[in-house]
Each structure stands twice: as structure tokens, then as C-alpha cells.
Amino acid sequence: TYLHVAQCGNSEIPSVIQLETHYMSANIGEEVTLLCFYGDEMAMHFSWYKQALGKNPKLISTIYKYDENASFYHEFKGNTRFSVQGRNGMNHLSILNVEISDSAIYYCGRAHSNVVEFGHGIMLNNKTDILILISDSESNRISPGDSVTLNCTINTETCEGEHSVYWFRHDSGESPPGIIYTNGDRSGQCMKSPESWSPTQSCVYNLPKRNLSLSDTGTYYCAVASCGEILFGNGTKLDIQVLRILVLLSIGRTGVLFCFLTILLVIILINKYFN
């Protein structure tokens, strides 16, 4: 059993807040340190927020730029599993004896002139021995204006009840995945195994995408919150084929330019001939 940490968030956030790593892993019960560096001379206060999937962000800690000790809030107050290392351009959050309930997205923030800005979030995701298999639909090559339905099939043997399903999209750039849709607590189309002795349950979730454009290009991930944990599929890649269109446009523009230059050259030669 171990935890997986992945960087996620919005690439538009100012780079004054930087996370050192994109991925980390730690066994349940071990220590995880989420590293956050800042290069802003103006900001005076720094914070950490925790956001579980489907929940509102919750303030963990705040620390003044020149202080060594942070203030903690909510259930983190007095909880010795959580600590912050501040000063010298750092705002590192350490979590001791990692638990399943620590699975969430963690945001490092800075405050200046009553404005709070955040760096990329860090997704802390646990993987346990619970058998949940997630199968995403196959990758697709499609054209602009087409429609497609992404499928997420979940097979579980050790946990009954409804699943909360989330869809993430990771574009071809450097920005980390962002949540785009959630099925909430609906169980989708679920069917139990026909064998009476088998506890296996299969559920299928669909994400329809219509009138696709270039901005829809990317890898779509299905994530399942079940049995107190969050698991991810391998992803489905949508490749919007616009290269052929761009090539045709480029050829067309080249042809028009060639014709224009040819006509211009003929006009020049005619003028020289008559003059």
C-alpha cells in the first residue's frame, strides 16, 4: 500500500510559487513532504489548503514570512502529524504517518495586499490492495466538429455501493490535469456478475463530447472515489486531426502567392517590352 503524489492545477498561476517535483510516492504510515518554494519579496504570508474531491478547500496552515512556527486550523490544529517548515523562501508541508484520509489536492498559497494566489496543486492519491479495475475507452483520432463518447468501466470485487466518478483532462502542453466533470454519487449503469458466488460488480460511466474543436485535444482520465480512496484509469487520448486542414490551407496560400507573383512578373515584362 502506498500513496502517489501528482502535481496538478492551472499553468496560468504566477511562477513565484514553485513545486519541486511533479510526482512522489510513499507507503501508508510513512512521511510525505510537499515542497513549496517562493521567490516573491512582496508577499508576507503563506498558506496550505486541502481540497478533497467534491469538497470545498479547507485551510490547513498559515505562516508569516519571518516566523518559524505556523498556525494550524480546523482538524489540523493540534494534530502533530502535520508540520510546516518556513523561512528562507520555503513553505514545506510535512505529513507524518500518512493515512487514506489524507488523499486530496493540496495548494500552496501566498498573500499580498489582500490578494491570495496559489501555485499548482499537489494531488495526494493512495493506492491500496482494494481490487478496483478501471478501463478507459480506446484513444481516438477525430476531426473538428465530430462527436465522441468516452467510456469508463469499473470492476470491483471488494467494495459495494455507489461510486463518485470524476473526469480529468490533460492537454498536450505542460499544464497538469484539471477536473472537467463529475458524476457525483450516481452509480451509473451497474451490473453484477451472473455467477451467484461472485461479488464482482461492473459499472459503466459515459462522458459525451460534442462538436469537438482543437481545444478539446488531450488525454482524458476517469477517476473513481470509492471505499475511502481515489483511483485513476490509464487515460483516453483524443487527437483532433487538423494537420491535414492546415497543410491544405498552406498549399492554397502558396498557390495564390505563386499566381500573384507570376502575374506581377508578366505585367513587369509587358511594361518593359512596350517602353
Automatic annotation (TrEMBL):
Main location: membrane
Transmembrane intervals: 245-270
Gene Ontology biological-process annotations: immune system process; response to bacterium
Keywords: Cell membrane, Disulfide bond, Glycoprotein, Immunity, Membrane, Signal, Transmembrane, Transmembrane helix
UniProt protein name: Ig-like domain-containing protein
PROSITE patterns: IG_LIKE (PS50835)
Record localization: Cell membrane
Pfam families with a match to the protein in the record: V-set
Signal peptide residue numbers: none
Keyword Disulfide bond: yes
Domain Ig-like: from-to ranges: 14-108, 128-224
Species in which this protein is naturally found: Esox lucius (Northern pike)
GO cellular component: plasma membrane
